Amino acid sequence: MTEIAEQLELPDSTGKQWHNRGYYGSVNHNAKAVYQRYLGWYDSNPANLHPLPPVEAGKKYVEFMGGADTVMSKAKDSIAKGDYRWAAEVLKHVVFADPNNQAARNLQADALEQLGYQTENPTWRNEYLMGAYELRNGVPNQPGINTASPDMVAAMSPDLLLDYMGVRINGPKAVGKQVRLNWKQPEGQTYAIELRNGVLIYTADKGFDKADATLTVDKLGFAGLMMGGASLDKELAAGKAKLEGDQGKVNELLGLLDNFPSMFNIVTP
């Protein structure tokens, strides 16, 4: 995959047309994407079947290369020669082996920054510069872009809404818990929703004969409960929702939903 991406180039007749330039993605990037889509992540080299995770691999790489000081010294030489790709490659192991090594972080940030300045592809440039920022300053304390806003969720179909709910289930917290819930929409479908074995499954146009609870609420109200913008008690008191059965089971299910941070590490453990 990596070798193919290094070799593929567009001919000048098409590659030098502005609409074929790498202003979003690149030939190198997308060649890898095509390979991965059709053949999967495995590149047929058995050494890559079960590689060590980054932190453990980083420690072993640094030990093999003679220690962090030796790696950093050689990386400085690579940077001086303009070999920024290689410097970034070797320094990532030093950073993962010891994320508190700020000198190594700053050095890798220098390499990534130069790569960002040199790339025409803004997707790559943003990644390079974001990585350099994180190495120097840590993960930004910013809310980021939230594509799971209440408005976005409310615009989902009921099936998509339940799929998203399933993604947000905290599996380890849900182990050993079982919930069977009927969700009835006043003027829409009924869904049988079941939590078992740490996962959420649902079936449209069906209801459990012996459900723990039956919740009657429209899609917008259900989305509000799922996103935390509304409380079940308030919805029931306002007459916007109706509940038959064990309210504790509904609250238990809602309490297992994770909220995902929009900002996270990309170049550090």
Report on this model:
- By secondary structure, the protein is of the alpha+beta class.
- The protein has 14 helices and five strands.
- A hairpin with a 2-residue loop joins strand 2 and strand 3 (199-204).
- Helix 4 crosses helix 6 (84-97).
- The chain is elongated and about 70 Å long.
- The model has no long low-confidence stretch (mean pLDDT 92).
Task: Based on the model shown, name its key terms.
269 residues; alpha+beta; 14 helices
Any chance you could write out the topology, listing elements then pairs?
Elements: H1 2-7, H2 12-15, H3 27-39, H4 54-64, H5 68-80, H6 84-97, H7 102-118, H8 122-137, H9 150-154, H10 158-168, H11 171-174, E1 179-184, E2 190-196, E3 199-204, E4 213-216, H12 219-227, H13 232-237, E5 242-245, H14 247-254
Parallel strand pairs: 1-4
Antiparallel strand pairs: 1-2, 2-3, 4-5
Helix pairs in contact: 4-6, 5-6, 5-7, 6-7, 7-8
General shape: elongated
| Major sheet summary line | 5 strands, mixed
The helix-strand sequence is HHHHHHHHHHHEEEEHHEH
Put simply, the count of helices is: 14
